[in-house]
Prior knowledge:
Layout: E1 13-16, E2 30-33, H1 34-38, E3 42-48, H2 54-66, H3 68-73, E4 78-83, H4 87-97, E5 104-107, H5 112-116, E6 120-123, E7 129-132, E8 135-140, E9 143-149, H6 160-166
Parallel strand pairs: 3-4, 4-5
Antiparallel strand pairs: 1-2, 3-8, 6-7, 8-9
Amino acid sequence: xxxxxxxxxxxxxxxxxFHEETGGCSLGPNAFDxxxxxxxxxxxxxxxxxxYTPTCSAKHLPGFIQHAAEFRQRGVDEIWCVSVxxxxxxxxxxxxxxxxxxxxxxxxxxxxxxxxIGMELDLTTRGMGVRSQRYSMLVKDGVVQLVNxxxxxxxxxxxxxxxxxxx
Length: 167
């Protein structure tokens, strides 16, 4: 069953690559527990099937980067982009997209987080393996406030603009 409003984020590990060593973190990949990272924060999460894929690169991630300041003005402490890719791919994609300081690029390489929240999407017949469904989510202090899920093959519900309108 997919995660819903009122549910707590599960304890699971995601990874982040840094292009510069800061705050005691090495370049990476650095492991972070989702529950601990969300504690005491308001977090907007966007999840997508894969880094460098057409819709994800042209529309989904760019919308959140473009509107990062507006999210912060409306009380969002961090924006996380989660994908079933490794931290090196997420780091390179984030650098190319200009995400630094705006969106944290979090790798869920083994789909641990994605599976625990029931958002996996089996694309093995298309040569992509298990991926994440496309969604956006608002989380306050580790508790899901709302989830915007897109049906497979669409991009309507999980846009940055829609999530902003719900804040």
